[in-house]
Amino acid sequence: MPLTLEIITGERRLLRQEDVDEVVAPGSLGELGILPNHAPLITSLAAGELRVKTGNDVEEYFVSGGFLEVHSDEVTVLADAAEHGSEIDAERAEAARQRAQERLDQASDADRARAQAALARSLQRLRVLEHRRRRGGGGREMSR
Amino acid sequence: MANTREIRRRIRSVENTAKITNAIQLVAASKMRRAQDRALQARPYAEKMQSVLGQLSSVAGDPDTAHPLLERREINETTVILITPDRGLCGGLIANLERHTGEIVLGPEAGGTGDISMIPVGRKGGDYFQRFGINFRASFQELGDYPGLAETQPISRIAIDDYTEGRVDRVLLVYASFINTVSQVPVTVPILPVEPPAGDEDASGETQYIFEPSPQEVLADLLPRYVDLLVYQAVLEAAASEQSARMVAMRNATDAANDMIADLTLVYNKARQEQITSELLDITGGVEALKG
Question: What digits encode the pLDDT tens for the residues A22-34?
Answer without folding.
Answer: 899 998 888 899 9
